[in-house]
Amino acid sequence: MFGYEFYIDPSRCIGCRSCLQACEECETHRGHSMINFDFIDREEGIQSAAYVCWHCDEPTCAQVCPADAIKKGEDGVVHSSLKPRCIACNNCVLACPFGIPKMWEPEQQMMKCDMCYDRTSIGKRPMCATVCPSQALAYVRPEDIAHRREKPSNTFVFGNQTITTKVYMMVPEPAQAVIIDAADYIWEARR
Amino acid sequence: MLGDDLQRETLPPRSRGLTAIAGAMSLIVVLVIVQIWLLTATLESFLAGRHAAALPAAAFSGLLFLCCAVLYFFIDRVDAESRR
Amino acid sequence: MNLLRSKSAEPLWKEEFSVHTSDERYVSRRQFSKFLVLTSAAMFVGNLWILVKSWLTRKPVYPEALIANLSDVPVAGVKLFNYPTPDDHCILVRLAADRVVAYSQKCTHLSCAVYYSAERKQLLCPCHNGSFSAEDGSVIAGPPPRPLPKIEIETRGDQLIARGVETNARG
Hints:
The complex is a heterotrimer.
Chain A: E1 5-8, H1 18-24, E2 36-39, E3 48-51, H2 60-64, H3 91-95, E4 102-104, E5 109-111, H4 117-120, H5 127-131, E6 137-140, H6 142-145, E7 151-158, E8 161-171, E9 180-181
Parallel strand pairs in A: 1-8, 7-9
Antiparallel strand pairs in A: 1-6, 2-3, 4-5, 7-8
Chain B: H1 18-47, H2 54-82
Helix pairs in contact in B: 1-2
Chain C: H1 12-16, H2 23-56, E1 65-69, E2 78-82, E3 89-96, E4 99-104, E5 115-117, E6 122-125, E7 130-133, E8 139-141, E9 150-156, E10 159-166
Antiparallel strand pairs in C: 1-10, 2-3, 3-4, 4-9, 5-6, 6-7, 7-8, 9-10
């Protein structure tokens, strides 16, 4: 929708899995949730985080697709692969830095979050953002998120690749200055 | 529940420069039609033995082709700029 | 092909198979315009070809041929003959005692054989009622688009000699 943005704040996630249930209700992929639900450090605690597709400005999945099946619309939403074109090669699954695309082997089709395009294109919120009780997944206007202590950032650095996305991540520092380097968190020393 | 005030349309499509491209394309179509007619007329006059018309016809046809080429470069530039 | 494209950061294949749906309109229009310009170039080349042919075509040299004797053709009478080849049918008309003209008999409309009408002093085509002036072969009426080609006749004493086919103005 025009004027509305998607904000993800993992620190607010309470692990209720409402987003998973809501996403599963979609007619297109009933029974298969497109939410990435992770635990931060399951050994140490129960803090969870739910992510949707980040809808990158230059989507890596689209760029590596050999069949030109993944398209980014004019409103910035990156769609699941086009059914006539997808050859289930798994390039996008391997290439996405966030690990979002899922390959549905029985249908030989890649599926991922498309920000509930059937809802957002007619003025409704995505299912996950609608049901999230703590609003860890929020779909609001930028001025409505401004009151929060965390600030939105949409720039991610993966080594040499800098990615800007449509979906914002809420981070504890001023947005302009924050660049999240996910590589720093991959090889943490075990305590 | 959230969701009452959200009746907004999606982003307007990126249509910068499309009008200019449409105008240039229609101009090219007109010029090409004129060129096709000119070729047929020149051929007919040549076969009738009137060789005097061949040179000015070729020159004018070249001029039309140059105009088409210029219009195509214009379209290419509008296309490139709209991607920036 | 690189010369014909604007400077762009991305290779051509990436632009033409763009992941952004909004690019499709631009790409298809650009490709169609490119096709139109190539058509225009083809037309120009066609015109150049005609120009080159007009430069290279030499004025044909026609043989002389004895058609008939002047005394064999009465005033307002005709003589049919073939010139310069046996397949080129021509018609000779004696308009006056001292005036003889000859034309190709092929009507310039659809090649029917024209005949001479003495009372109208015209060459008439029976197929579609075209008529040519007997004086100079120009079109008087009807569908023919061009005048009748004229055969040059030289009178040498009593002999009527065909010298050549008169071509239209050349560049």
